[in-house]
Amino acid sequence: MDEGGSNDVQRRGGKRDGKGTRRSWSTAEEEALIQSLKEIVQAGWKCDNGFRTGYLGVLEQMIRKKCPSSGLKAVPHISSKIHVWKKTYGTLLTMLTRSGFGWNATNNTLDAKDDAFENYAKSDPFARSLRYKSFPFYDEWCEVFGKDRAIGENAEDIVSASCNVTSEPILIPLSTMFLVRTIACSVRILSS
């Protein structure tokens, strides 16, 4: 799909028509969605068990303002994209808590030892599709989909909160730094 927002749908097999089941998102549309998701989270649309009723309609309106010619609808386009992003985020988060996995922050890619990856992929076949992909929205996914993630001006990461409690610097080996980042994605820490 081009940046102009053509509404043609790309079907598997390369045929184009107006009745397909598959839609390709442009980079601008994905960026508009992630920005809109962050905005509704900050506006209080996220609850303990997910988003409040009606959030898809709000997202559709927000994206329509940011990308007027996209033609994105709450159902199926936005709900499908969010479903895929949640599934991808959950799989990445699970892998990153296991031995043999790491994160390349420069390329936003998963680093994994071959044997660790193969063992994990046996239990989660979806993981195979994630091996060499880049995930530029991973940090945003942590904010939007992470459980009990603190947002706003009182938010602290785990290292800052620990330093405030002990009033002494904490030295963390570089090998465990990613684990701290992953935990910080999932833990809510509020400053006093």
UniProtKB/TrEMBL annotation:
Report the superkingdom from the record.
Eukaryota
Region (Disordered) spans which residues? 1-27
In this chain the Myb/SANT-like domain maps to: 24-120
**What residue spans carry the Basic and acidic residues bias annotation?**
9-20
Give any Pfam family that matches.
Myb_DNA-bind_3
TM ranges: none
Q: Show the InterPro entries listed in the entry.
A: Myb/SANT-like_dom (IPR024752)
Please give the name of this protein: Myb/SANT-like domain-containing protein
> Which species?
Sesamum radiatum
